[in-house]
Amino acid sequence: MRVLVGTTNPGKLREILAILGDIPGIEWVAPGKVPEVQEAGTTFLANAVLKARAIARATGLPTLADDSGLEVEALGGAPGVRSARFAGEPPDPAANNRKLLASLAGVRSRRARFRTAAALALPDGRVWTGEGALDGEIAPEPRGSGGFGYDPLFIPRGETRTLAELSPEEKNRLSHRRKALEALRPVLQALASGDDEELPEDPRLLG
Predict the structure, then answer these.
(1) CATH of residue 46
(2) Conformational region of residue 76, where left means phi above 0, alpha means psi within -120 to 50, and beta covers everything else
């Protein structure tokens, strides 16, 4: 069974395949020319569903998409769903990190949370979703060369290293993205086996 990964972010693509790439019977398809979906939702979940459903309908393939972001307590939950464009258009991860550090200058509490919502959509409109979160804090300066986005600034709870200082395997074991994606593993396994009776009941039918 072919399943399209609905992202053009190479970092996300690597992580999704590292986490779910071992499911027998699934042939993962990297996105080619897919429609650009306006992320108009006010939540990560709404945006993930928008992307997955739009791409599934356009390509005729089951599509896995996610929406992720950083919520900083001292900033009232910002950047939130605007995480990728925190510093404006076009998206610029380095500029986002600079703006975040400037926004927290002089702030004592640096608690933050990474959140991911993942959606698996079928061309017929059925959608299953999963969500995950990772608590931590914002480092005073970027550290590490791995990962992407805000990873050089995010220290997971219980760690002294940023996500960018962890190996890919270490990051994937604890990440918010893994928690969201693993919730969809039973759905993917059932679809790959062709056994609709094994599909979880009551998929989200949003929109």
Answers:
(1) 3.90.950.10
(2) left
